[in-house]
Amino acid sequence: MPDSRPDTVLVTGSSRGIGRAVALRLARDGFDVVLHCRRQQAQAERVAEEIRALGRAARVLCFDVTDRAAARVALEADIEAHGAYYGVVCNAGITADGAFPALTDTAWDSVLSTSLDGFYNVVHPLVMPMIRRRRPGRIVVMSSVSGLIGNRGQVNYSAAKAGLIGAVKALAVELAKRRITVNAVAPGLIETDMVDAEATEAARRAIPMQRPGTADEVAGAVSFLCGPDAGYITRQVLSVNGGLC
Ligand SMILES: NC(=O)c1ccc[n+]([C@@H]2O[C@H](COP(=O)([O-])OP(=O)(O)OC[C@H]3O[C@@H](n4cnc5c(N)ncnc54)[C@H](O)[C@@H]3O)[C@@H](O)[C@H]2O)c1
Q1: How many structural domains does the chain have?
Q2: Does residue 91 line the site of ligand 1, with CB under 6 A?
Q3: Model confidence over 108-123: pLDDT tens digits?
Q4: Is 1 inside any structural domain?
Q5: Which of 52, 64, 73 is nearest to 125 (CA)?
Q6: Which residue out of 85, 86, 120, 157 is catalytically annotated?
Q7: Would you say the CB of residue 186 lies under 6 angstroms from ligand 1?
Q8: How many Å lie between the centroid of ligand 1 and the Cα of residue 1?
Q9: Which of 3, 20, 66, 112 gets the highest tally of CB atoms within 10 A of its CB?
Q10: DSSP character at residue 207
Q11: Structural domain of residue 89, as residue ranges?
Q12: Is residue 169 assigned to a domain?
């Protein structure tokens, strides 16, 4: 008998910002959601409540995506208890900006580790269970316009986000025959806690649409890539940037 449970998608870094908007949008579009946070469990639980109010199941996992062992233990236990996921949205990310000569080792290491180790630490334990499910699946990775064109003061962040695009393109080829699509979303300037108001005002003038984007606009693109209309779309980067590039 076909499995009639709704498909489940894990969204990393979903206690706030773009991740929260993605989680809520996926729930509205019919998915059950595994929320994820590093420390903000109460905030993530509030998002879970909002999702349950929409009639979808939600639970919260907490671990630092840079902690390989913690990620593996949490994800394997969750899959053991609830079954393999249909999809994952690798959204957790940080910035630590500064002109390159003044960049600290910590700013370099932490930004690359959160993006690239974070991708590996989360996606690697999920892939075999997704393959064994023998059904379509989705992997969506949050890159950035910085990973496409490079941003002044963001050598670390631009390298990390470009690295993610390389990982997406390679993994998409490996998983294509399994009907698991792998795509990146590359937002431009999106108004969240990550960006400061001064930077937003300065950048606004460079954006052809003359405004920053919203988390909900990014969430719509992610949900499209997770949905049935995107079954033949893989190895792509979908920009959500008001025409910036
Ligand atoms: N806001 C923008 O303008 C913008 C533009 C392009 C790309 N992005 C990307 O979108 C994603 C979400 O950004 P946002 O603007 O919502 O920022 P945000 O700071 O509001 O959210 C980032 C989330 O990631 C989580 N996170 C960070 N490091 C983590 C770690 N080590 N372990 C577990 N969780 C961790 C944070 O707790 C937070 O919930 C990031 O990957 C970011 O790089 C944002």
Answers
A1: 1
A2: yes
A3: 999 999 999 999 999 9
A4: no
A5: 73
A6: 157
A7: no
A8: 40
A9: 20
A10: S
A11: 8-240
A12: yes
CB 213 within 8 A of CB 239: no
Give me the interface pTM, i.e. the ipTM. 0.99
Examine the residue annotation and report whether 157 is marked as an active-site residue of this protein.
yes
Query: Which two tokens mark 165?
Result: 């695009």
Residue 199 pLDDT > 90:
no
Residue nearest to atom 2 of ligand 1 (CA): 190
- Ligand 1 contact, 190 CB (< 6 A): yes
- Which of ligand 1's atoms lies nearest the C-alpha of 215? 16
Using CA atoms, how far apart are residues 118 and 121, in angstroms rounded to an integer?
Answer: 5
Whole-number Cα distances in Å, 113 to 58, 92, 97, 109, 187? 27, 11, 15, 6, 20
Ligand 1 center to residue 229 CA distance, Å?
26
Ligand 1 site-directed mutation target among 91, 114, 123, 237, most atoms within 8 Å of CB: 91
Name the token pair of 51: 């999702």
223 lines ligand 1 (CB under 6 A): no
Asked if residue 106 has pLDDT above 90, the reply is yes
Interacting residues of 3 by C-beta distance below 8 A, sequence separation 6+: 135
Å from CA of 77 to ligand 1 middle: 25
For the CA of 213, the nearest atom of ligand 1: 3
Tell me the pTM.
0.98
> Would you say residue 131 lies in a domain?
yes
Is ligand 1 within 6 A of the CB of residue 94?
yes
Domain of residue 139, CATH code? 3.40.50.720
Residue 3 belongs to some domain of the structure: no
Nearest CA to ligand 1 atom 13: 18
pLDDT at position 226, please? 98
pLDDT tens, residue by residue, 129-188 = 999 999 999 999 999 999 999 999 999 999 999 999 999 999 999 999 999 999 999 999
